[in-house]
Amino acid sequence: MTMDAHSRDAMLPHRIVLNARHLPAYAYGPRSPIWWGTVGFAAAEGMGFALAAGMYFYLVFINGNWPLSAPPPDLLWSSLFTVLLLVSIWPNQMAKRDGEREDLAGSRRDLVIMSVIGVALLGIRVFEAGTLHVRWDQNAYGSVVWLLLGLHTLHLITDLGDTIVLTVLMFTRHGHGKRFSDVGDNAFYWYFVVASWLPIYVILYWFPRWW
Amino acid sequence: MRRIGPFLVLALLPLGGCQGWQSALDAHGPAAGALARMFWIFVAVLATVWVLTMIALVLALRRRRAPDADPLATDPGTERRMTVTISIAIALTLVTVVSLTGLSYAAQKVLFAHKDGGLSLLVKGQQWWWQVTYEDAQPNRVFTTANEIHIPVGEPVLIKLESSDVIHSFWVPSLTGKMDAITGRQNQIQIQADRPGVYRGQCAEYCGLQHAHMGLLVVAESKEDFERWREQQISSAIPPTDDERQRGMEIFMSKPCVMCHQIRGTDAGGKVAPDLTHVGSRRTIGAGTLETTRGNIAAWIVDPHGVKPGVNMPTIQLDPDEVQPLATYLEGLK
Amino acid sequence: MRTVLILSLAAVVLAACEREDRDYRSNPVTAETNEKIALVPLSAGPGGPTEQRSGLGKDYEENAYHISQGQRLYTWFNCNGCHANGGGDSGPALMDDRWIYGGQIENIVQTIREGRPNGMPSFRGKIPDDQIWQIAAYIRSMGRNVPKPAAPSRKDDMSPGPAEQRRPPGEVIDGGQIPPSAQMPQ
Amino acid sequence: MTRAITPHDLDGVPEISRLATGERGGLPGVQSEADAPPSPDELRDDQVDGAELTARLAKTWGTDRGLVGTLSTVDHKIIGRRYIVTAILFLFLGGLSAVVMRMQLAVPENRLVGPDLYNQLFTMHGTTMMFLFGVPIGEAFAVYLVPLMVGTRNIAFPRLNAYSYYVYLFGGLMIWVAFMLNIGPDVGWFAYVPLSGPEFSPGKRADFWAQMITFTEVSGIAVAISIIVTVFKLRAPGMTLDRIPLFVWAELINSFVIIFALPAVVTASATLMMDRLVGTHFFNPAEGGDALLYQHLFWFFGHPEVYIIFLPATGWVSAIVVTFSRRQAFGYIALVLSLIATGFLSFGLWVHHMFTTGLPQLGASFFTASSMLIAIPNGIQIFCWIATLWDGRPVFRAPLLFILGFFFIFVAGGLSGIMLASVPLDTQVHDTFFVVAHFHYVLIGGNVFPLIAAVYYWFPKFTGRMMSERLGKWHFWLAFIGFNVTFFPMHITGLMGMPRRVYTYLPEMGWANLNLLSSAGAVLFFGSFVLFLYNIVSSARRGPLAGPNPWNAGTLEWASASPPMPQNFDRIPVVTNREPLWAHRGSLPVVAGLSVENREQIVSTITHGRADLRESTPEPSIWPFMAAIATTILFVGSMFTPWALVWGSIPLAVTLMGWFWPKPSTEDER
Prior knowledge:
Number of helices of chain C: 6
Radius of gyration of chain C: 17 Å
CATH architecture of the largest domain in chain B: Sandwich
CATH class of the largest domain in chain B: Mainly Beta
Order of helices and strands of chain B: HHHEEEEEEEEEEHHHEEHHH
Strand content of chain B: 15-25%
Helix content of chain C: 25-40%
CATH superfamily of the largest domain in chain B: Cupredoxins -  blue copper proteins
CATH topology of the domain at 53-176 in chain C: Cytochrome Bc1 Complex, Chain D, domain 2
Largest sheet of chain B: 5 strands, mixed
Structural class of chain B: alpha+beta
Largest interface: B-D, 97 and 93 residues
CATH topology of the largest domain in chain B: Immunoglobulin-like
Shape of chain B: elongated
Distance between the termini of chain B: 61 Å
Shape of chain C: globular
Helix content of chain B: 40-55%
Oligomer: heterotetramer
Order of helices and strands of chain C: HHHHEHHE
Strand order of the largest sheet of chain B: 3-2-1-5-8
């Protein structure tokens, strides 16, 4: 085998062709690696939601009659949940905007509002779970209803935890610089929580009424 | 080519090596015959593709480019020739694949075409044996047996597959391909034998401890033989005539055997294990594991877990002098 | 410190081994076990002394495989004909804490083997001894008197309620009432 | 190091060009901290050079000694090395279990191991090879090599990457410890319900299997995301999409397949555990569930899984074929498009694992067509590689030998796969030893042979020493003959009616001779791995020194030292060609201006690879390790009680907070 002596024994000398000294230290949205990481996790989790929804319709198809020996779940709490979730888009958008403007006071206010909304949603979710009229161990319908609801609740809790930690951070001396980019990414993930709920809401609460 | 030599020798092995009573290539039914023919067509086509690819590889390795050539330099003429060659190869691959798909689809239509008439059986997979029920319009002509299916030659027989526990798969390679017996579902498959003979089958979906010993036999016989067999199976067990068998029957009735096994015409009415009404007429015991002889029956009763570890048949406490009459009695249940 | 660690690890190891063993070839296969404790009077009342045990009971009631086999046999031998899914019917309930003839596994084995007045037949000679132990172990699991990891999960069947594994751990109170349906003269 | 430039050489070097965006970090009209000029006190790599630069960067990017330092490391090379070593150890464990199985099957009615142990053995073999070796090995190589090949200093989310490794390690250890304690799963590597369900798998065996899935898939998805973001955002300036090395393309597509396939198996295993633990009825037909639903979920993952195992191998093959042909890859675009097509098509084939379940016939034949169609992109790849060899000047060293073994075996396996794609033929060979033979031809041919080639190829980079070529040739012939003697006869045993997963067979079945032959081959094959191990260990100690680029290859990892320094490159390279080291033989164009004292790396744009940001990447931290322990506690606990999800989340939350909490002086993320 022919091998160039210099390439085996020594590293190539450098020739500088670009100056990176004045590149910015961070940026927002798709320019930031974290944003892409969030998209990646949202894609994997979205796939999980899609598969759970797929299971739901597969079971509908297998069984024919639906829901199995239980009335459809009540609309009150779930609709309240949905409305509040939709309303939360507004403060969430504010948080994203204030984060991008690097407005500390604004970001703090928005994050506190988002934390409170998250806690309220979690509270409503508890009541919602009480009005399903079916237990997970009653039949396959109950199992898949609880699976979808549980899966979404898991994401709600995760993002709420993230929001609360970020809120606390913004009230400490760490509330500057790249943290603002994190506010934007947190807001972005919240959109995923909202967007994933809407089809689940329709599937769990309206589909059995139409079927 | 040096590398290919031993491989070719090995490749010739199957031509002579596939005779056997559970072989997919030793076809004895129309479906298995069609499948075997199709298999050989696929082998011929695909082996050609493989050989051509390897020839191309060997030729590629023998070519030499100039020793000092720049690895980044490419010759437009060579590039174009290679592009054209590869395009042709891909087009040929596509044609091959499409024709094989068409062939497969045609065979599928024939294979799964439902033929009317004939016998209808309910075969239920259980851990680790097969319960076989011969259906009939007259309820008193319905009977149940285990692990051995008799069919008349030349007639399609419908098999309805169910499972009472986990998923099993019904597979008698000499007659046709396999079909799963799935919990909570019923699948159907038709088998047909061209020639009289005994064809072995085996569970082909992993089903727990004794998946390896879950065999069954399909006995294809002439219409007359089959009808004779059926009449005999419908009848109740023949009461024992001699003393030893009488004693064997008494032992059977006084032991745990009756909790699980049924012998029609006696008090034994258990429904969870194979029906033993005509166990002596079956060629094997333990779901195709042992040949039905008096000695094997005795061995099986004395220590079932020695033969089929983990089987649901328990070890039963018997006095040494009880084994012989019991085995004799069971063997006599023709 | 290290010794403690190794010992506790070894304990975990052994416990796990026993719980998951698939001891399908019963041992001993020839001799019927004679548990001293099992010899309680064949009439209602508290069970006998519980000191003298061979330890065989533990092998069964802490082993997931045996309990699961017992669960199958319970249906196969039609125990549910009288005792339903443990809630009781013409026979007494098996999932509550009341045990007319004692609720230790040895008592239950004897009850199955010898039978009891007012309807419980004797299965001596009808069910091999190791299977009786398996059934008794399963019956112990109905009131969750066995370790949780060994208790059965739900069956692939119509669901009568939470499986044995999900029931709260039970107690055993000796003595209890024979259900009226079982009190007719036999 | 040759001194080529002097300090302050930056004068006159462009800041904005086709290589950089020159956009501000903050939004228009916003005074952003992102655009603050770098501190003048901070030493930058245009101010020092040569050995001093190397030493200073090594200190900044290095890993501390001691236990805490070892467990805190976020260096992708150290984590990648652990990943590779662990995956190969699992390969040996899986291989050992296979040898025991082959010994049991050597003669009919053998009593070496009983059915209970045998069932655990084949389950452990399949599970280990698929989940603890097959998926991780591709990602492990990516973790080590992708940052080097795209010319950056660390993987995108180094802490997440470290966490993923520990989660994978703990998951693998958990199931092997369980197996040693006789709680090994005995339900097969796809664990079909109802056999694996609550009624027919008493105890915790199946739960260990299902939870092992959760471990490996959480880690698999996290690594896949790290790799995708590394390829998208951390490429060296100038590395446009069409200059990405084929290996990196393969790992990128592979990561996408992982992200969309693994959730299916997690859903399957999670619902299985729910059925077993909290009494749900997903798979209980009596309460409206369905046993086939599980199979659909599993195989929706399970078929892409085959490509998750194969795609990284195509990367290895491409890299080695190019280097040892002394010619750039023929049909780069075609190869990349084939990878993408394979990735997409892999999601449309899953039903061909279920042809015997009685599905509607028309639907089944659709899957016949799609399964056969995947031969096209794979064919394109094979033909392009052969063309590269044709027009090149092949150098027959151990890596290339194993690649030739790959062609021989994998093409045969792929073609027997065409038989399995046909519904009628599949009814005869499904679940027999024919299938066992087929998928070992595909998986060992398609993954293990390229893997061994890759080890021989990159070993000098990993260790700085060459592997023994003589042993390598012995190794190859032993492996090649051992493999074919083991697996070729299985085609025939399968056609003769031998189902898979039987712990023994009757003497009168006539399978004894072929099985004995297979068993003998298995010993030979395993022996080749022992030789491999010996070669690795002895070469790592005494092998001849390699130098940075022993094979005279063209991609960027060979521009770093062997083994690479913690910072990978003293300055980030600038890429102008697909094979940068072949294009720049005299000197390497680089970027300057990054900090020497802080962990800065260049973030670039997705398509054009223009330098966009100089973002700092996380320092070492013990918290990912702690979080992995907390995760393990949560996962293991939740096999026994659902409440573990509640109490187990507390330590997990604490460790995650420790992980994400910024240090006073630096900015850390993920």
